[in-house]
Amino acid sequence: MNKADWHARAAKLKIDGRAVINGQRVDAADKGTFECLSPVDGRKLADVARCQNADIDRAVSSARAAFEDRRWAGLSPGDRKRTLIRFADLLIANKEELALLETLDMGKPISASMNTDVPAAANTLRWFGEAIDKVYDEIAPTNDKTLALITREPIGVVAAIVPWNYPLLMASWKIAPALVTGNSVILKPSEKSPLTALRLGDLALEAGIPAGVLNIVPGFGPEAGSPLALHMDVDCIAFTGSTGVGKKIQVMAGQSNLKRAWCELGGKSPNIVFADCPDLDSAVEAAGGSIFYNQGESCNAPSRLLVERSIRDEFVKKLKQYAPRHNPGDPLDPETKMGALVDQGQMDTVLKYIESGKSQGATLCCGGERVRAESGGYFVAPTIFDGVTNEMKIASEEIFGPVLSIITFDTQEEAIRIANDTNYGLAAAVWTRDISKAHLVARALRAGTVHVNSYDEDDITVPFGGYKQSGNGRDKSMHALEKYTELKTTWIKLA
Description:
- 39% of the residues lie in helices and 20% in strands.
- It is built from 15 helices and 23 strands.
- Helix 5 (110-132) packs parallel to helix 6 and helix 10 crosses helix 11.
């Protein structure tokens, strides 16, 4: 479809903002709602149920009842597999609607929603569905008079709290492994982008996931997220979001029932380009494309670009020439590469960081201002700072916007020191033609993912998560199944 087609479809869109609890679309218990506004043009999309304590209690009770009567956990892995595959197929069958909801709600380009987010979410559901009946338990090598079985069982009721930057994809990363292992799930989407999660609840029921097994509770963090983290009948909480909120969730998990708490958090990822980079143009495109992708609203975005001094001038020149390719455009235009920031608050935050960079002495190479204000949306131009030091706020704090900081280094040791001089440890990259240097630097970097001569490589088979204050646990891959299961040992005396 072209831009006009997407706008016409958006004008006719009917949105149900009610929660999904125990297999039904329901209002919040007190009938409270909040307005869901589009960052594309500021218009109201829907009134969404504002779930609070009473609604969380309803959702948890529903999930607990579903888990205890084993309407889902009691099915064979093969049956759960087939249901998740139907679920994935329904996402693809409804791809245009889901992509439109994602773009209108969050501001990303429709091409990204259509070609990346929805297909990747469907692939996540399908992959975990296909995997689960190929997972075997163990028998320990004990003596011949005993039999020790090592089995994994579903943990019970899982609360998943997901962020606003990849609403559908992050939801799938949580719910797919949690569901396929037999748990009941309560999904709380961000209040900034709840619409695809609510539609996900409808499609789950249509796929055959029993009522109560997947509940969707939109609402604000203190009113819906905190009650989930503190709830005595939630066995596990999986969160993706800021490090500050992740710390609070860890505390609340301990204050309540010591529930498992898996927190995938922020990042300030270093992208190191050595003078012997094998392809400078590819490095430029990766550096610019990865920080400006999704408007810079990616936790693993390579927001710190470390460039060796001898190639710095040439690299910066090429990067400044590249940046205009990502000038913001109409998110409903399939040709647009960068869309709108999620809301006014996030735009204001990004602009404040840009002012901080200027005031602390960094050199603004391009961008640095709001654009397309006449649209009513929240757009910031692709922004590059040079002459940055690691002590500046733009280099040390997560901005979550299209802002790149260039830091110059002279030696390999200095590059590693600067790269690791951060509270975060989510991702990193190394560009060099020297295979020994690549391995040594990658080994020295304290990050959950290290790319060599690339950035943003991605596959469902590979775990995603970080070191240090980027959190614990891993999304994706078979390792994700460990987060949502308990390990049990059963001893049997044979003699």
